[in-house]
Amino acid sequence: MDWRDQGALLSVRKHGETSVIIDVFTSEHGRHAGVVRGGVSRKIAPTLQPGAQLDVTWRARLEEHIGSYIVEPLRSRALVLSDRTALAGLNAITALLAYALPEREPHPVLYDRTQSMLDLLGVNEAWPTAYLKWELALLEELGFGLDLTECAVTGARDDLAYVSPKTGRAVSAEGAGEWADRLLPLPPELLGVGDGSLSNVLDGLVTTGHFLTHGIAHALGDKPLPEARARLLDRLRRDAVNAARL
What we know:
246 residues, alpha+beta, 5-stranded antiparallel sheet, 3-stranded antiparallel sheet, 8 strands, 22% strand
């Protein structure tokens, strides 16, 4: 059994004395693990950093075996190392994918979305808004998508301001009424508009975080979300405070 593909490196863990097991989100084979022989060597180790784009060849005697990888670097995305918040974003993306995606199941739409998202980090200052939309896309891909097209109460398409924590449907300010304080925020960025302010992005991440926890995490046996996501939110909150002081 063998195939060749490209993908983003999600995680690396040591295997024996000289090898590592890597988890790669590939274009055609989904999240797929394999052993890299000599992966701790000075020649290969610098290549195996989360977020790196790799050309990988996988081989195994049987399909169900973990198999081994031969890897070639395509690009490192090391630019994020100079930006602590962008680095936190990269770590959150790779951690959530390793956490949420089933093994060996292709997700071509999410793969393309993830490639675009990773390429924005450290390059485009509007990447936090794109990250928020990426979490929305992750929920959609795994069957926990939100319905933000119209108010669940009135059917109106205007003045949408909240999301029901139970159904994931949008609710207008009028439809919310006295229940507004029990609903989740719906910033315009979740609707594809807005100015991309960090306060709005953080409001949106409250909402996507609710469904990551009560949807994906619950389906995984209430396994806690990766700490990398919480660290990203901390960095974004600090940046929002600093921006407000300017």
